[in-house]
Amino acid sequence: MTAFILGRPPGIAYIHFNTRLPKSPGTTGILFPAIISYFRLALVLGEFLSIALSTQPVPHDVIMTKDKMLDAWFDSLPQELRFDSDAVVRGLSSTASNLRRLAIHNTHLKSLFLHARCSLHAGAAAIIQSDDAGRAASLRIAASAAQSLIRLVSHIPQELFNHTNAPMPMYLSALPFRTFS
């Protein structure tokens, strides 16, 4: 997943692990839903990694199918990992570790979703040759995802990046830099 986001070849493709994920995360712990969501995202990214990195023209319907898989993953996130922008700010600023941890996972998962979506469609918009309507749609989706990613990063209180009592996890502290990659 990180390899895709950073533009490096993936070290572990989805076909290299055979993990049966639970159908329902349940309530066995606060990190469990987030961890399962990361594994599910790895499966989705593995499905469209070769398309996103392709240098050959890809039919737009294939790209939209993969985009629907990404949307389905995002829509399947557990309710406790769904925050609006105000809740993200409150959660990241909270002294309650459970709420803060959920806000961190929400922000990271959402940024991965937006970055993957932007990467999929930006690459597709650049190489689609025969379908101008498809290229225009991919450009709109990529631009919307990029705008949402920038908005998400801008909602993170800047003082949290300098907070020494509760340091920001590395994968969130790098978000402002990754936003413009």
Structure characterization notes:
The structure is a single chain. With 181 residues, the protein is mainly alpha-helical. Helices cover 62% and strands 0% of the residues. The protein has eight helices and no strands. Helix 4 packs across helix 5. It is globular. The chain starts with a helix and ends with a helix. The mean pLDDT is 75.
**How many distinct beta strands?**
0
Output the radius of gyration: 17 Å
Which runs of at least 5 residues are low in confidence (pLDDT < 50)?
Answer: none
Helix content: 55-70%
Keywords for this entry:
181 residues; mainly alpha; 0% strand; globular
Layout of helices and strands, plus pairs?
Blueprint: H1 2-6, H2 32-52, H3 60-75, H4 85-93, H5 97-127, H6 132-154, H7 170-173, H8 175-178
Helix pairs in contact: 2-3, 2-5, 3-5, 4-5, 5-6
Short description:
The protein is mainly α. The chain contains eight helices and no strands.
